[in-house]
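call fold(seq) -> tokens
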Amino acid sequence: MHHNYYFLTALAQSLNHSLVGFEIQTAFSQNKDELLIGFSSEREKRDFWLRFSLLPELTTLSFPTDFARAKRNSIDLFPDMIGLEVERVYVFENERALGIDLKDSENNNKTLVCKFFSASPNLLLFEGETVIDLFIKSRSQDWDIEKTALHKKRETTWEAFQKQGVGASFPTLGKELLKELGLKSDETSAESWEILQDFFFYLKRPTFYLLEKQGQISLSFFEKENILYQTQDPIEAANRFYSEFSKTFYLQKEKQKALKSLEKKLRQTQNYIEKNYEKLDQIQSKSRYEEIGHILMANLHLIQGYEKEVTLFDFYQNQNIVIPLKAQISPQKNAENFYRKAKNQKIEIKKLEENIAQKEKEAVKIQKHLNALDAITSLKNLRQYLKTHQIKVEQGADSQEDALPFKQFESEGFQIWVGKNAKNNDLLTQRFAYKEDLWFHARGVAGSHVILKYRAGKPFPKSAITVAAQIAAYYSKSKTDTLVPVIVTPKKFVRKPKGAEVGAVLVEREEVVMVEPQLPVQGV
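ret:
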């Protein structure tokens, strides 16, 4: 609900009181998913900060009371609006887009638009009807947006409601609010109309509830169980939502990174133990250097000279044995060689047993850390635990989005990753894909693994699924066919059997779609 039309409406009204007359002093980004805008008022002698977050998991506005800009990895943006004064803040009619009208001393007008509609939110700067700057410039469709077209006229009379129903008359409610109001999209009854009118009256002075359910943070107009906080100030509600969501989100993010790193170390440790047990068994069962030395020494009188091998009675196994010898040295020297090998073998066995014991202790220790981390519910406690126990978390995943080793595309705001070869397919499916992602592969032919990345709380659009399937068909041996069957399945149903060839996987459950092999117009 944090970017629902009605919440944005309340937020715009509050910002209109807080920001009019303030001047934009700075606009910068310290990471590719966040923009900070600093406002200042000489008259009121105070600053005001606006943070626009575009994380896939969190697209929202928040308003830090103070913000210290980093000295490095920071870039200035939107130079054309620096020095402009806020004239008004509003929401475009029936659209999830918040506008900030700006002007200078010569009445040169611009409008900053925070766009939340569609699967690709963005920040746009207009001069008149024309977009002159974007925060995420790669979203080329945003360059063609006209400002007046953002206003959506709707017929919301009782007569129109009876003809169209709730969904068509009030699309700004969205599925979430309809569900909370207990209404269906096609309802046209007088009772439904009364429920809507009561809700719109309530919106004149709403209360905002910050909720927590099973680790998920949300905002609501309605009082429910598990209330963390409530307020009638939309700016305060936005800030508390951002704060609580961030705590939960970054806790889970850092915890998963730590767990993944420890799980990798545990697998490596267990593999080491398994391989060394195998090596130990081979050494103990295969080699009998000391016994062969004893057999040679007991039969020196039977060995005729410098021979390459000799057949003697093995009094350990009660049968004859052929013993290889070095012909250039005496039988006694050959026996000494076997004794030396036996001594080295004992040292090797002892070292292997010590290493195995040490690694088994490490495995127990790692498992204890995994259990402890899994139970931690605070980001502060998580970081303290990692520091206290000197657990180093692999940082390779931090630069994952900036330097992914895969082909990348985007559809409806959803990332699509494509393997480049068999080895790269394994890397994509086994290490970079998560169980919630969708996995694609052309059916019955060789081709690339394709992953449609999951976005928290957002269902996969049918159009994005089609695009990902088309990409999988394009990067396959069936590329030249008119229609290609493509497997679609959640990643959790894809596994790699032990001993399988590079790039080979087993799909336990699948659906098949027929698509035309092609690439999307815009790649990422």
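The chain has eleven helices and 23 strands.
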